[in-house]
Design brief:
The protein is built from 11 helices and 13 strands. It is an alpha/beta fold and about 280 residues long. The chain has 2 domains: about 120 residues, Dihydroxyacetone kinase, domain 1 (Rossmann fold), CATH 3.40.50; about 120 residues, 2-Layer Sandwich (Hypothetical Protein Tm841, Chain: A,domain 3), CATH 3.30.1180.
């Protein structure tokens, strides 16, 4: 039997992990010397409330021992693992998972999938892996299908400020200074290498939203397999853009609450369409 493992940056709640039968790897946010496990010690509502109050969180490196604690009982039960994780371009989780597999001497039983994504893009891969595993597919076929889905996935974010990327270590001081002076409202995306990088440096939220509508429409030209809108702590704004996405795509669009770990880098005000295009 193949068991599927994912980290908490998917935006899934602990209850959703339990209901899906997917094992959860909590990732970390830090407030000074205090370390919090996402979906265990801290949850998005509290995280964004504290962030709006002025607290600057940081993310913390994944611990291979945490992955060992999840992998070990699966392997000892005679099962295999497909572990789908946040992009290696923005997190050390993939590397930590490989170290954990080596520590257990189980590299031949554990497959680590670099999603090159996070949020819904990662979650969709994990749920697909779970369906395929339950249907009796092997790890090689699962990895092949997940790679195809990732190639058809586009995830974009409109951010209200560059400061979160700067404080989260994703932007240099010089880049932040230039952006803040001219009041950039950037569109950020997960590029082909899984990097969270600038797609378009628009000067106003209105222009950013106009461009985002165009991007959504371009993604939906040949049909949509699945779509969501990420939002952290701006539900009213998200509901308005969500309705526009459904009208543009002529397809149902879900909501995904942005994880605390991603929120460290994006802030509480964000609109983040994720579209998986039809093959």
């Amino acid at each position: 039997m193949i068991q599927v493992v994912m980290d908490t940056t998917t935006g899934m709640t602990r209850q959703e992990f339990d209901q899906s039968g997917i094992a959860m790897i909590p990732l970390y946010v830090r407030d000074g010397d205090k370390l919090y496990r996402e979906q265990v010690d801290i949850f998005p509502d509290e995280f964004y409330r504290r962030q709006r109050a002025g607290l600057i969180f940081e993310t913390a490196q994944t611990n291979p021992a945490d992955l060992v604690s999840v992998f070990k009982p699966i392997v000892e039960a005679g099962d295999e693992v497909v572990c789908v994780l946040i992009s290696s371009a923005i997190s050390g989780s993939v590397n930590a998972a490989h170290v954990a597999a080596q520590m257990l001497g189980a590299e031949d039983r554990i497959t680590i999938v670099d999603s090159l994504e996070s949020g819904y893009g990662e979650a969709y891969l994990g749920h697909t892996a779970k369906k395929m595993a339950d249907a009796g597919e092997n790890r090689v076929e699962i990895v092949r299908v997940l790679a195809d889905i990732r190639n058809r996935t586009r995830t974009y974010f409109i951010m209200e400020s560059l400061k979160w990327l700067f404080h989260g270590g994703r932007l240099t001081g010089a880049q932040y200074f230039v952006g803040s002076v001219i009041k950039l409202n950037p569109i950020v995306w997960f590029d082909e290498a899984g990097r969270m990088t600038s797609y378009d440096k628009t000067r106003t939220i209105k222009v950013a939203k106009d461009h985002m509508r165009q991007l959504v429409g371009d993604c939906g030209k040949n049909g949509v397999e699945a779509a969501t809108l990420h939002w952290p702590d701006n539900l009213d704004e998200a509901q308005g853009f969500h309705a526009e996405m459904e009208e543009i795509l002529q397809a149902p669009v879900s909501y995904t609450k942005l994880s605390c770990v991603l929120g460290v880098h994006t802030g509480p005000d964000l609109l983040g369409p994720c579209i998986i295009m039809k093959a």
